[in-house]
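call fold(seq) -> tokens
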Amino acid sequence: MGSALVWAAIPHNSDGVVFQVRVIRGLQRFHISRQTLEESFDLAPHASDAGQLELFYQHKTLILRQAMRKRPIAGADTAALQTADFGTVVEAGRDATAHMMETLGSLAPKRRAAVQQLEARATYRTRDLLQPQGQEFATRPASDES
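ret:
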């Protein structure tokens, strides 16, 4: 899927990213708005154009997957990707982390360290959902604090 992306750029009004993907019967243009990037991928509210593009490339695989599901056959118009297109995968990771943080507040200090380690692992597992199979993220070794 990495070769499906033809180009990506910031539109003149700095609202998100416009990109073109190779699909069935040609090329399809897509637009993912700044608001969608903020809500789905935690883009900072006043991020620069470079920040928007960097975030796009960080989540390129997931974004391209959703784009190709939304418009698998090329059309003449620009297809917009909405927050709802990304909600289920991204929210699952956030919900797991939020639940861990609630649990963390009620545990004794010795157990807090263990829960923090579990939270770090959950973050890496969330990344696994967002990365293509066969690629690895650089991870730091888990420390054996007791």
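The radius of gyration is 18 Å.
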